[in-house]
Amino acid sequence: MNKKKFSKIAAILIIASMLMQMLPTIALADAAANAIAASVVPGTAVSSITISGLGSPAGLKYVYKISNSADAIPAQGAAIPTADYGQYVPGVDIENVSAGKWLNLYDVSYAGEVNGVESYAVLGYYQKQLESGDIKAAANTIAASVVPGTAVSSITISGLGSPAGLKYVYKISNSADAIPAQGAAIPTADYGQYVPGVDIENVSAGKWLNLYDVSYAGMVNGVESYAVLSYYQKQLASGDIKAAASPDTVTDNGNTYTYTVADGKVTITQFTLGGSADITIPGTISGYPVTGIGAEAFKNKGLTSVIIPDGVTSIGDCAFASNNLTSVTFPNSVTDIGEDAFVYNELTSIVIPNTVTSIGGNAFSSNQLISVTIPNSVTAIGDGAFFNNQLTSITIPDSVASIGEKTF
């Protein structure tokens, strides 16, 4: 080959190589050897994207930055500051994105300090200006956030109202649920009911909160089910979980109450009988209103009657179980009566106020009730709630959407 023809071919190859390097989805200095086989795919969560086609090659990690413009493409092996990039886990959404922003995605290895700055070494890249079709739609999401507070191992969800005809259910698990399609059926037995503003307890950092708003779907393929209307998922961080509050005690009419204060409200967590077995729970303690009766707080104390003060909104699981109660007075503030709350007592009649929305499983089982009138505020009655009584009359309003097994 003569020298002139060789020079022309070499020039063409150089120009072709330069054009190849200008393409935004080409690997860095190499032909496609270090390219990320990635595409942005749409889905069903608010302002987020998932990258498809990424494996987890040994020794590599993926990092990303969402910005108003594309990064200047670094040379292969170039150092980029670790502080400027978030780690991308294949299959996990990148959130807080919008159309027009740029996704800058790299596979990297850790380079240690470079010129005094902790850095990654770039091995391959992918860039894309996001379009509306890339971003997951907001239609099926709950605008909710987990907020910390001051009770033991519990969380409260903010941003939830109480829309008519809907209820919220949740599951705490080791991994996120596979996101169901809108209208999909999920088994009622797998989920607990969430009451807005009431803590979900027994949680820990690293667990997943799977929260849904649902309507009752009845039996689906032989399984009692909810229909999913929207969802919210979050892997809980330590900052989401309420810190353990130091309990305090107070004595009233010879009886001792142990309690915690959170957000200026008292929850009674334990009771010691020192006076009459007919008790009136104080409405305020240390100047704070009593709003909660904790789980097992008054369990097996030999009580014969109890007056619960106005302002109490929640009665915890087993709160008054295994006493000798023949009379309970509820205030017109209670919204939630927990599981086994009054099981194993001697109640012959009760007046459930028209503020209660849920009655937990076995809440009034194993008493002496003759008749029960459920108020039209109640939407859910748990398994066995009134089981093993002497019932001859039961009134259930149309508001009740869910009734458990062996309820009466």
Number of strands: 31
The overall pLDDT average reads: 78
The largest pleated sheet is described as: 10 strands, mixed
Structural class: mainly beta
Report, as a whole number of angstroms, the end-to-end distance: 98 Å
Low-confidence segments, given as residue ranges, are 2-38, 42-46
Q: Could you tell me the strand content as a percent range?
A: 35-45%
- Report the principal-axis shape: elongated
Radius of gyration (Å)? 30 Å
Number of helices: 1
The helical percent reads under 10%
Tell me the layout of helices and strands.
Layout: H1 3-22, E1 39-41, E2 48-52, E3 61-67, E4 79-81, E5 86-88, E6 94-95, E7 102-114, E8 117-129, E9 145-147, E10 154-158, E11 167-173, E12 185-187, E13 192-194, E14 200-201, E15 208-220, E16 223-235, E17 248-252, E18 255-262, E19 265-272, E20 278-280, E21 284-285, E22 288-293, E23 305-307, E24 314-315, E25 327-329, E26 336-337, E27 358-359, E28 371-373, E29 380-381, E30 393-395, E31 402-403
Parallel strand pairs: 19-22, 20-23, 22-24, 23-25, 24-26, 26-27, 27-29, 28-30, 29-31
Antiparallel strand pairs: 1-2, 2-6, 3-5, 3-7, 4-8, 7-8, 9-10, 10-14, 11-13, 11-15, 12-16, 15-16, 17-18, 18-19, 21-22
